[in-house]
Amino acid sequence: MSDFSPTQDDLVAYLRGQLTAAESGAIDARLARDERLRDLLERTREVLRIVTESTEDSTVRRANDYLRRGIEAGASDVHLDLERDGGVVRLRIDGALHEVDRLPIAAARAVLARFKTLFAMPPENTDLPADGRLAFGHGEKRLDLRGSFLPGIHGGRLCARILDQTTALAPWDKLGLFPEEEAALQRLARLPHGMVTVTGPTGSGKTTLLYALVRLLAGEAINCVSVEDPVEFDLPWVAQSSVNPARGVTFAYLLRAVLRQDPDVIMVGEIRDLESLQMLVQCAITGHLALTTLHTYNAVATISRLLDVGLEPFLVSSSLRGIVGMRLVRKVCPECAEEVRAPLAASVAEALGIADRGIPWRRGRGCTACHQSGFRGRTGVYEIVEVSSALADAIAAREPEPTLRELAFTGTLPTMQGHAARLVIDGVTTPDEAARVLGITW
Ligand SMILES: [Zn+2]
Predict the structure, then answer these.
(1) How remote is the CA of residue 161 from the centroid of ligand 1, in Å?
(2) Which of 11, 187, 271, 407 allows an S-S link to 391, with CB 3.0 to 4.6 Å?
(3) Is the pLDDT of residue 441 over 60?
(4) pTM across the whole model
(5) Ligand 1 centre and the CA of 163: distance in Å?
């Protein structure tokens, strides 16, 4: 018996009382003189406790309840953070986090374990980050959830992203476009060739707008192909591929394959490398319509970005046909909206180009419908540039940004500031929210 070395399975059986008296006795003897085995036993006991607790009804119900509440509140994410003394559950609604529950640490660990099971993550790897997916039924709806676990000193955190087709695939009238902006986008989407980029920071609705453009075209007698990182939503009539850098399937690799598919329209998720960008520009020049997103501050900054990453000015000027800059701004909650007569702050009025600081505006007082935030739902703030020949010439000549900006907004289309100002005047959002989203300091 001296070389008997129990495995973790043996310890599980031991803790569950499934061994014979002799087998238990052998493990007892070994435990008495083996400190490492005693450690392993304690860790096994902890895992068993979590597994047992996590399969209890209350934990299962709780985990489902948080996801359900997130979906019903229209949240984009459900967060569970384990802290020193317990767990915090928060929902991200319209871009802001709202706390919805606090749990004792044991219950929080059990819910975390349950989430990991739901998202098919390995429950025992508490010290490694993990990802997983879950198809979650909610009434008639079937939602895709993407879970990600990040370990931490108090047990880590789990974020469940809710991928809602009805939000991501919003119809045109839900995008918050003014009629002249919608007309401009329709013209851009129907160009026979050239590049159109949608720009803005993370979470600004770029993908939703890109999908709307593609859906406008899909189904017409054209071949539409997309390369995404990763594919999040099924688009009918679009052949979609996901990049997989771990297996060498990069944007550039997929783009080469896509070009052999005789595409009319190529949609590419956010591009991060010069090689892919050069390939996309080549596509745009050689008779394809190329749609992509870029992470830049505004429409004109996109031109500088394309030049800064190393594209030749003549390539940018001959391929770039349209730029859409966008943000999402929170809308005043209709349940608790009130009119305000206080004059606008001078700096905000100036930045938004509102001449009359005395105009009435609206804000939400805060109510249960809006989690006391005064806001409910979001809408887009846009600036759309259709590249004219004058602007293309200025790009080729490497004119500075202020010159490009002057040439970009000569027609009837508003800048983002102009678009936001109209939302303030119409009472859709508050001056402070418009200023915050546009990064205006006052
Ligand atoms: Zn409200």
Answers:
(1) 24
(2) 407
(3) no
(4) 0.76
(5) 25
CATH class for the domain made up of 57-162: alpha beta
Three-class SS of 135-199: EEEECCEEEEEEEEEECCCCCCEEEEEEECHHHHCCCHHHCCCCHHHHHHHHHHHCCCCEEEEEE
| Interval between CA 334 and ligand 1 midpoint (Å) | 7
Residue 369 Cα to ligand 1 middle (Å): 5
Spacing, Cα 151 to ligand 1 middle (Å): 36
* CA 332 – ligand 1 centroid, Å: 8
Asked if pLDDT for residue 277 goes beyond 70, the answer is yes
**Residue 179, strand partner residues:** none
Give the pLDDT score at 55: 57
* 371 CA from centroid of ligand 1 (Å): 7
Neighbours of ion ligand 1 (CB under 5 A): 333, 335-336, 364, 367, 369-370
CATH classification for the domain delimited by 168-438, as one of 3.40.50.800, 3.90.800.10, 3.40.50.300, 3.90.228.20: 3.40.50.300
Kindly report which listed range (157-161, 231-235, 361-365) carries the lowest average pLDDT score: 231-235
Confidence of residue 442 (pLDDT cuts 50, 70, 90): very low
Domain ranges of the chain: 8-54, 57-162, 168-438
374 C-alpha to ligand 1 centroid (Å): 5
Pairwise CA distance, residues 256 & 440, whole Å: 42
Question: Tokens standing for 361?
Answer: 């505006």
